[in-house]
Design brief:
This protein has 160 residues and is mostly beta strands. The protein is 9% helix and 44% strand. It has 2 helices and 14 strands, in the order ααββββββββββββββ. The strands form 4 sheets. A 5-stranded antiparallel β-sheet has the order 6-5-4-1-7, with no helix packed on it. Strands 13-12-11-8-14 form a 5-stranded antiparallel β-sheet, with no helix packed on it. A two-stranded antiparallel ribbon has the order 2-3. A hairpin with an 8-residue loop joins strand 9 and strand 10.
Length: 160
């Protein structure tokens, strides 16, 4: 513990998470889930517009795990493990999650209940209610219809 006090948590986290040489001091609210505010956000390789865009994220309300902060920039991790930097204006707080693998939605919180819909990997769902390891979620179908159903918690990523 004395070693941690000497070198500090920021250095430990920088080594663990590979902050490209930056020492970022996490605040109490650093390690949290947020989501994309719009359907287009640039994921940069570093904390600033001068850094190249590595990915263009196109899933509105897709959850991201914030792992570091540097000024107005947030280092985030996506469901598939990809990491990069987003400006905080691209983020919002909304109760969403992302499907980890193809799954079914059920009309009740039980795998014996009637199947309501099939949902694809990486689909973004809005969280409605929790009950006994299940989540009631709302998802928009490809034709814009809203579908509500239950899915086991372990099938989702980005839960708070």
């Amino acid at each position: 513990m004395a070693l941690l006090q000497k070198i500090g948590w920021g250095v430990i986290l920088a080594v663990l998470f590979g902050y490209e040489g930056l020492i970022c001091h996490p605040s109490l609210e650093t390690f949290r889930i947020a989501c994309l505010r719009s359907s287009k956000a640039n994921l940069h390789v570093g904390p600033g517009l001068q850094y190249p865009v590595d990915w263009i994220l196109t899933l509105r309300h897709m959850p991201v795990w914030i792992v570091a902060e540097h000024g107005p920039w947030r280092r985030v991790q996506l469901c598939d493990g990809t990491r990069g930097w987003l400006h905080k204006s691209n983020l919002c707080v909304k109760k969403t999650a992302q499907v980890k693998q193809k799954s079914f939605l059920y009309d009740a919180p039980s795998s014996h209940a009637k199947k309501v819909a099939k949902i694809g990997e990486y689909a973004v769902v809005s969280l409605v209610k929790r009950k006994d390891g299940w989540l009631k979620v709302l998802v928009k179908s490809s034709d814009g219809d809203k579908i509500i159903g239950w899915i086991p918690e372990d099938r989702l990523w980005g839960l708070r």
